[in-house]
Amino acid sequence: MLQVREVSHSYGKRNWLDRSGARPPVLADISLTIEKGVCLGLLGTSGAGKSTLGKIILGLEKPSQGQVLFQGQDIYRSSKPVLKGLRRDLQVVFQDCYSAVNPLMTAAQIIGEPLDNYERLSAKEQLRVVGQLLEQVGLTPEDGSKLPHQFSGGQLQRINIARAIALKPKLIVLDESISSLDMVHQTQILSLLAELRASYGLSYLFITHDIRAAMTICDRIAVMDQGKLVYSGDAGNSVMQSDHPAVQQLVTAILPEHPSGRISFG
Question: How does pLDDT run across 192-213, given as a tens digit for each residue?
């Protein structure tokens, strides 16, 4: 489904006033794959490079070196017609559900954007499809007439998810898509994502700093640190037992504040 081959990226030299030398690479020789129907968790602390890699995979930022192949096609060397087809099958849900939408558009218009770009539906048919998508994410067709400010954060993220699945894509990049929500809404969204994955046969790239959330939904986990891939394996107890400092930092972050509630992972 997705192959990232030896991708490196740097933002070039510092400005001429800065004598400290060239900037360190943001990404260094990253390789990973996502198979059909698999959810890969891409973890790391702030500044690890995971969101930059997400942008490169989405075709939003060309890497300095390496290849990104989606369905066998190099997304940075494909023709415009091929790239349009690839973009149909590759969708994204961002962290900030509010900035990801036009505040002046209704929920129905937001969800209908990709349908407008790729399908030729009558107004009646599009209304029916949008209503079905709203129901699939736990809302109602009547919610389609509301504006973004009339929804809670959790509800608006459901609308972003409905937009992402509107074209029945093959892969969805979830870039910190639950990190701005409270624990209750996080649990609900994770459950929804699991249901949609089963219904549509979706693959996910689940970008997060929350190892607990990743272990809830992911089949495999990759951990980044300072632009490098430092761990890759199944989403089981082995990741908890890794002795790499970057992995241990993620594990420590989920432990309860009170020592009596802490769990030893070996």
Answer: 999 999 999 999 999 998 888 9
DSSP, collapsed to helix, strand or coil, labels residue 127 as helix
In whole angstroms, give the CA distance from residue 188 to residue 183: 9
Q: DSSP letter at 151?
A: S
The total of other beta-carbon atoms located within 10 Å of residue 104's CB is 8
The amino acid occupying position 80 is K
**For residue 230, is it within any domain?**
yes
Query: Can you give the pTM of this predicted structure?
Result: 0.87
For 76-90, give one letter per residue: b (16+ CB within 10 A) or e: eebeeeebeebbbbb
Count structural domains, the chain.
1
| CATH number of the domain residue 186 falls in | 3.40.50.300
DSSP string, 171-223: EEEEESTTTTS-HHHHHHHHHHHHHHHHHHT-EEEEEES-HHHHHHH-SEEEE
Q: Taking Cα atoms as reference points, which of 129, 183, 181 lies closest to residue 155?
A: 181
Count of CB atoms within 10 A of residue 70's CB? 23
Cβ atoms within 10 Å, residue 229: 21
Q: Six-digit token pair at 129? A: 């499809």
